[in-house]
Write a structure and sequence with these properties.
mainly beta, Jelly Rolls, 14 strands, 43% strand
Length: 157
């Protein structure tokens, strides 16, 4: 194995982070999501880049949309179902999807197969972002570097 020096990196050496910082009962719904934060490992500050493994019968997140953050995903391996206001679409290796900031179209990815799927996730880090979860009693606000989660009425979890 070749030993790389920055600015190059082998994503396999980046620690894997399982699940989510969602409060329960929501965190368990994304327990099969494993992220490698390669953008952070490279010192990127203006946007995040994650290599994500989604285990069989797992979802990427709760269905959501961002007020300020653009999101982009590119499927590397496997098959994912993109669930959005447009309905459901199957995405395979080499397919991509983008979610402009402020577009009120809640979305997430689901792996309904018996095999893991891998995708690249990219999002910007504009301050003041908030996340809307249309199907759940959850709201999130960016409080750099973390997120705060409340119920939709503002009561904290």
């Amino acid at each position: 194995m070749t030993h790389l020096k920055l600015p190059a990196i082998d994503p396999r050496v980046v620690p894997a982070v399982r699940g989510s910082n969602y409060p329960e009962p929501y965190a368990s719904r994304v327990a099969g999501r494993v992220k490698r934060r390669i953008g952070e490992a490279l010192g990127l500050r203006n946007f995040g880049v994650n290599l994500v493994l989604l285990e069989p019968r797992s979802c990427s997140a709760l269905r959501h949309w961002h007020t300020r953050q653009d999101e982009f995903i590119y499927v590397l391996e496997g098959e994912l179902v993109l669930v959005s206001g447009a309905g459901e679409q199957v995405l395979g290796s080499g397919m991509a999807a983008g979610f402009p900031a402020g577009q009120t179209d809640g979305h997430h990815l689901m792996n309904r197969t018996d095999l893991p799927a891998v995708y690249l996730e990219v999002g910007d880090r504009l301050p003041g972002d908030a996340v809307v979860y249309p199907d759940d009693d959850l709201a999130a606000k960016s409080k750099s570097p973390a997120w705060t989660f409340t119920r939709k009425n503002g009561v904290e979890y």
